[in-house]
C-alpha cells in the first residue's frame, strides 16, 4: 500500500496538471480574446470545454472497470498515462492553431478537457481509496491547492509568457509543464492500492441508489450556484478596466495562488476543527461580499489597479477556503468500491451548474453589463447561503 505522502504528492501533481488546462481555457484565453476585441458572447463559446467535465459521469463506470478489473489489481497508472498523453497533445495542437481561429482552438481544448476530465476520474478514485480518513484533509488541501497552482500557471504565467514570447511558444511551454507534472504519479515507487477481486461492477445505478450520493449532488449544485457564477466575468472586466495581461496574470496567478494555497490550508484546519458546514457558510458569505465589491467597482467605474487586484486575490482565497470543506464532505460520501464514479457525479454537478451560469453570463452579459451581472451573482450567493444548512447537515445513520 502506498504511503500517504506518496499518494498526496502523486495525485497533487495530477490535480495541478488538470488545472493548467483549465487555467489556459477559462482565464488565459478569455483575456487574450477580450484584448483582441471579442465580445462576451464570443468568449462564452469556449465554455463548450466545460462539457466533458459536466458529462464525464457517462463514461466514469467504464473507466473504473478498466482501472479496477474484476480479477483484482489496480491499473490507475495505465489509465493516467495513456489519457494524459492525449491532454498534452491537445495543447500542442492548440499552440499551432492560434487564438484567432476560435473554432479550431476550442476543438483542441475540448479534446484536452476530455482527457483531463478522464484522468480526474482515475485520480479521484485512487485518492479516495488510498487515503485513510485521517489523511483526507491533506488530500483535499492538495486537490484545492493544486487546482489554484494549476490555474496560476495556466491563467497567470501563461498570460505573462504570451506578452513576451507569443501564443505558440507560451502554449508549448504549458504542454511541457503538463507532461512534467504527471511524472511523480507515473514513476512513483510505491505500490498501488490493490482492488479486491469479486467486488460489484462500478455503475451509475449503484451510485444513485445511495442517499449519500444524491444529497451530495444537491449540495454541490447549491454551493457552486453561490460561488462560481461570477468567475468568468473577472478577467474580461479587468481588461475593460485597463489592466494589462501581465498585471492580470500577476493577480490571477502568483498573488491569487499564494493566497489561495494559504486559504486552502486554513480551510483544511478549520474543517477539522469546526466541521464542513460552518466553513462552507463562511466562504459563501465572503464570496457574496467579494462579488458585490466587483459590482460596486463596475458601477463607480473604479480602475484602481491595487483595489481591483485585492478583490481578485480575495476571490481566489475565498473559493479555496470553502472548496476544501466541500470536498472533505464529499470524500466521505463516496463508496470505496467505486469512488471514481461517485466522486465524478459530484464533480459533474459542479460542471453542469457552472456551465449554466456561465452561458447565461455570456448570453446576457453584454446586454446587462458588469454591474448587473456581478450584482445578480451576489444575490444568488445570498440565496445559496440561506439554503445551505439543510443540505450540509450530516446524514442520519440508522
Observed structural traits:
mainly alpha; Growth Hormone, Chain: A; 398 residues; single chain; transmembrane; MFS; MFS transporter; transmembrane transporter activity; 14 helices; globular
- The ordered H/E elements are HHHHHHHHHHHHHH
Q: Tell me the radius of gyration.
A: 20 Å
Largest sheet: none
CATH superfamily: MFS general substrate transporter like domains
Low-confidence stretches: none
What class, by secondary structure content? Answer: mainly alpha
Tally the structural domains.
Answer: 1
Helix content: over 70%
Q: Can you name the CATH architecture?
A: Up-down Bundle
Gap between N and C termini: 32 Å
What gross morphology would you assign? globular
The number of distinct β-strands equals 0
Strand content: under 5%
Q: What is the CATH third-level topology name?
A: Growth Hormone, Chain: A
Q: What is the average of the pLDDT values?
A: 81
The CATH top-level class label: Mainly Alpha
Number of helices: 14
Keywords: Membrane, Transmembrane, Transmembrane helix, Transport
Organism: Chenggangzhangella methanolivorans
Protein name: MFS transporter
Transmembrane segments: 43-63, 75-96, 102-123, 144-164, 170-187, 217-239, 245-267, 279-302, 308-328, 367-388
Layout: helices, strands, pairs:
Blueprint: H1 4-35, H2 40-44, H3 51-55, H4 60-67, H5 76-97, H6 102-130, H7 136-187, H8 204-208, H9 211-227, H10 231-240, H11 245-274, H12 276-299, H13 305-333, H14 339-392
Describe the structure.
The chain is an all-alpha fold. The protein has a single domain (4-392), classed as Up-down Bundle (Growth Hormone, Chain: A). The chain has helices at residues 4-35, 40-44, 51-55, 60-67, 76-97, 102-130, 136-187, 204-208, 211-227, 231-240, 245-274, 276-299, 305-333, 339-392. Helix 4 crosses helix 6 and helix 12 (276-299) crosses helix 14 (339-392).
Amino acid at each position: 500500500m502506498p504511503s500517504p505522502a506518496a499518494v498526496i504528492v502523486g495525485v497533487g501533481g495530477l490535480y495541478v496538471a488538470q488545472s493548467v488546462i483549465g487555467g489556459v481555457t477559462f482565464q488565459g484565453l478569455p483575456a487574450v480574446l477580450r484584448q483582441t476585441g471579442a465580445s462576451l458572447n464570443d468568449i462564452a463559446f469556449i465554455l463548450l470545454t466545460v462539457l466533458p467535465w459536466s458529462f464525464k459521469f457517462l463514461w466514469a463506470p467504464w473507466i473504473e472497470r478498466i482501472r479496477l478489473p474484476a480479477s483484482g489489481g489496480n491499473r490507475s497508472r495505465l489509465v493516467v498515462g495513456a489519457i494524459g498523453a492525449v491532454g498534452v497533445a491537445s495543447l500542442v495542437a492548440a499552440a499551432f492553431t492560434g487564438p484567432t481561429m476560435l473554432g479550431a482552438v476550442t476543438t483542441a481544448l475540448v479534446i484536452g478537457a476530455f482527457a483531463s476530465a478522464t484522468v480526474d476520474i482515475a485520480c479521484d478514485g485512487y485518492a479516495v481509496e488510498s487515503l485513510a480518513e485521517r489523511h483526507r484533509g491533506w488530500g483535499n488541501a492538495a486537490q484545492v491547492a493544486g487546482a489554484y497552482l494549476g490555474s496560476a500557471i495556466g491563467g497567470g504565467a501563461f498570460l505573462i509568457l504570451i506578452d513576451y514570447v507569443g501564443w505558440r511558444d507560451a502554449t508549448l511551454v504549458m504542454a511541457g509543464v503538463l507532461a512534467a507534472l504527471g511524472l511523480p504519479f507515473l514513476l512513483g515507487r510505491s505500490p498501488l492500492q490493490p482492488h479486491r477481486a469479486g467486488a460489484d461492477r462500478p455503475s451509475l445505478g449503484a451510485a444513485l441508489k445511495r442517499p449519500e450520493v444524491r444529497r451530495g449532488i444537491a449540495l454541490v449544485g447549491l454551493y457552486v450556484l453561490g460561488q462560481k457564477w461570477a468567475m468568468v466575468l473577472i478577467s474580461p472586466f479587468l481588461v475593460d478596466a485597463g489592466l494589462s495581461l501581465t498585471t492580470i496574470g500577476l493577480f490571477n496567478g502568483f498573488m491569487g495562488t499564494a493566497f489561495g494555497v494559504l486559504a486552502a490550508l486554513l480551510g483544511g484546519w478549520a474543517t477539522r476543527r469546526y466541521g464542513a458546514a460552518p466553513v462552507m457558510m463562511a466562504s459563501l458569505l465572503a464570496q457574496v461580499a467579494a462579488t458585490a465589491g466587483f459590482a460596486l467597482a463596475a458601477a463607480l467605474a473604479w480602475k484602481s489597479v491595487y483595489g481591483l487586484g485585492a478583490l481578485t486575490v480575495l476571490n481566489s482565497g475565498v473559493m479555496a477556503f470553502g472548496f476544501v470543506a466541500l470536498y472533505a464532505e464529499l470524500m466521505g460520501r463516496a463508496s470505496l468500491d467505486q469512488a471514481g464514479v461517485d466522486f465524478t457525479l459530484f464533480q459533474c454537478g459542479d460542471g453542469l451548474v457552472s456551465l449554466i451560469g456561465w452561458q447565461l453570463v455570456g448570453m446576457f452579459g453584454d446586454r446587462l453589463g458588469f454591474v448587473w451581472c456581478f450584482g445578480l451573482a451576489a444575490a444568488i450567493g445570498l440565496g445559496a447561503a440561506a439554503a445551505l444548512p439543510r443540505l450540509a447537515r450530516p446524514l442520519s445513520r440508522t
